[in-house]
Design a protein that fits this description.
4 strands; elongated; Fumarase C, Chain B, domain 1; 10 helices; 2 domains; two-stranded antiparallel sheet
Length: 208
C-alpha cells in the first residue's frame, strides 16, 4: 500500500507526520546513511593528518571537495547505498562501497582516487554507528529542539508579564492559603532557567 496517514505502521509517520517532519533530516533512514557517510569521510580526512607514509597531507582544495561530498548528499545517493546493501546484506559496508565507488568515478583528483581503499580503514561498523548516532542527536537537539524550547520559554516570559497583576488563590496541603499571582506562578517555570537547558547548551562542544 502507498504510505499515508492511514497506512503508516506508527502514528509518527501517520497522523503526526506534519508535526515532526523537520526531524526527518536527523532520524530517517536517509539521515542515517548521510551521517554514516559523513563519519567515514571525516575519518578518511583525519587519517591524512597522522603522518602515515601512504597518506601524505591532503591539499586544501581536495579536503574541501571531500567535505562537500557529504554536505551536498541528496536522496538519490542514498538509493545507490541501498543498491549496494542488496549485494552486501550489510548497511555500513554498503556505505563504504558507495564512497569508494564515488571517489573512483566522481570529480576527484587522481591523488584522492588512489587512496580510496583507506575508506573505513581500521573501523568497525559499531565505530561508525556509535559516532553517527550522537551526531544525529546533537544536530536535532541544537537545530530543532532547543530553538523551539527557547520559543516556549519566551512565550512563558510574555505570559508572566501579562498576568503579573492577576490574583490567584493559592493552596497548601489542599487548603486555601495566602493569595498569590498568576504571573508569579508563570515565573516559577522560568527562574532559574531549567538546569537541563543549560546542560544541553554546553554539551554541544562535547560531541564531534
Amino acid at each position: 500500500m502507498e504510505l499515508n496517514s492511514l497506512t503508516a505502521v506508527g502514528p509518527l509517520d501517520g497522523r503526526y507526520r506534519k508535526k515532526i517532519e523537520s526531524l526527518d533530516r536527523y532520524f530517517s533512514e536517509f539521515a542515517l546513511i548521510q551521517y554514516r557517510t559523513q563519519v567515514e569521510i571525516l575519518y578518511f580526512i583525519h587519517l591524512h593528518t597522522l603522518g602515515l607514509p601512504q597518506l601524505p597531507p591532503l591539499f586544501p582544495v581536495y579536503e574541501i571537495g571531500l567535505h562537500k561530498f557529504y554536505q551536498q548528499f541528496f536522496l538519490a545517493l542514498s538509493d545507490c547505498v541501498i543498491a549496494f546493501e542488496k549485494q552486501t546484506n550489510h548497511d555500513v559496508k554498503a556505505v563504504e562501497y558507495f564512497i569508494k565507488q564515488a571517489l573512483a568515478k566522481g570529480d576527484f583528483s587522481d591523488e584522492v582516487k588512489g587512496r580510496s581503499e583507506f575508506i573505513h580503514f581500521g573501523l568497525t561498523s559499531q565505530d561508525v554507528n556509535n559516532t553517527a548516532t550522537p551526531m544525529m542527536l546533537r544536530d536535532a537537539l541544537h537545530e530543532v529542539y532547543l530553538p523551539q524550547l527557547e520559543e516556549v520559554l519566551k512565550q512563558l516570559g510574555d505570559m508572566t508579564e501579562r498576568n503579573r497583576l492577576i490574583p490567584l488563590l493559592a493552596r497548601t496541603h489542599g487548603q486555601a492559603a495566602s493569595p498569590t499571582g498568576l504571573g508569579y506562578s508563570n515565573c516559577l517555570d522560568l527562574t532559574p532557567p531549567p538546569k537541563s537547558i543549560l546542560t544541553m547548551g554546553w554539551q554541544k562542544s562535547l560531541i564531534i
